[in-house]
Write a structure and sequence with these properties.
GO terms for molecular function: oxidoreductase activity. By secondary structure, the chain is an all-alpha fold. The chain has one domain. The chain contains 14 helices and 2 strands, in the order ααααααββαααααααα. The radius of gyration is 19 Å and the shape is globular.
Length: about 290
């Protein structure tokens, strides 16, 4: 559903086996552990819901995407970048980052002020605060989903927790997109998220986007599992953000049912993703892991 290829392994996944170095992370990293886990499916949905609260991010989606016809298309594009950055060689990651940067060059415009008298505000997908917001909400979503449905995250530096290790390692992703000072600890991530509070708002554009994100036109068999995962994503949100979005925690056991859906997804897809296997092929070819 999210790979962008009906056969499940598009060309960009196959390209992860290419290149001549280990990439930015590796098999023992916190990033491989979190980003390679099944809970990231829910994390992606949660991140898109959260992103709508920033008026610049919402304007970019509203003005420059086909979310009404393909509400999950943007998620598929983001999945491509996250997976490539996680598992690819530095050369492959560089090519993917350049592709995303070219797309972002076209994403610019204005969004209305939150007051009648205010002048429209200009935005660009390359604005520092928008890059920071996207990086922060995805990092927060990855951790929230893994905390709920994943296992212990490896600690990769002395004095850290597993979540600290993940935030520090994944800061590389923010830097690749032009962020100069990404959070490098769980506490730093919390502070960075809180700092956006005065900017965030929900308007009619947000409500419209939420309708498409929570109830996209999926094939019949996918609707119930997706609805459950949306419920799980909403359940992991802090009450403050749920309230801003006009969302309510499901009355049904969203956490438990999402766990069941993720377990079934793991049974169907296998314990190891194709992208991780492709990365291991590259590492074995380079003699960095046993073949």
């Amino acid at each position: 559903m999210l790979s962008g290829d009906p056969h499940g392994e598009p060309e960009w996944v196959r390209s992860i086996a290419e290149g001549d170095d280990a990439g930015y992370f590796g098999p023992g990293s916190a990033v491989w552990h979190v980003n390679g886990g099944i809970p990231v499916i829910v994390a992606g949905v949660r991140a898109l819901l959260m992103q709508t609260l920033h008026p610049g991010a919402m304007a970019g989606v509203h003005d420059h995407s086909r979310y009404a016809e393909d509400p999950l298309g943007r998620l598929a594009g983001t999945v491509r970048w996250v997976v490539t950055t996680t598992f690819g060689s530095t050369q492959t990651v560089g090519l993917e980052t350049s592709r995303v940067s070219r797309l972002h060059n076209r994403v610019k415009g204005t969004y209305p002020s939150d007051s009648r008298e205010g002048q429209p505000t200009r935005y660009s997908a390359k604005d520092r605060d928008l890059v920071a917001w996207v990086h922060i909400v995805f990092t927060d979503a990855f951790l929230a989903a893994h905390r709920q449905w994943g296992d212990l995250i490896p600690i990769t530096a002395p004095g850290e927790s597993g979540e600290d290790s993940y935030v520090r390692e994944w800061a590389v992703a923010g830097e690749l997109m032009g962020l100069t000072h990404p959070p490098r600890s769980r506490a730093g991530l919390r502070s960075a998220l809180d700092a956006f509070g005065p900017v965030l708002r929900a308007d009619e554009r947000v409500k419209e986007a939420l309708r498409f994100l929570t109830k996209p036109p999926l094939p019949g068999p996918a609707r119930i599992p997706y609805a459950i995962m949306v419920g799980g994503a909403i359940a992991t949100m802090e009450p403050h953000y749920r309230s801003m979005l006009g969302l309510k925690r499901p009355w049904w056991p969203a956490i438990s049912l999402t766990r069941a859906v993720l377990w079934l997804t793991g049974v169907v897809l296998g314990t190891e993703s194709t992208s991780r296997r492709r990365a291991k092929e590259r590492l074995a070819r380079l003699g960095l892991v046993p073949s």
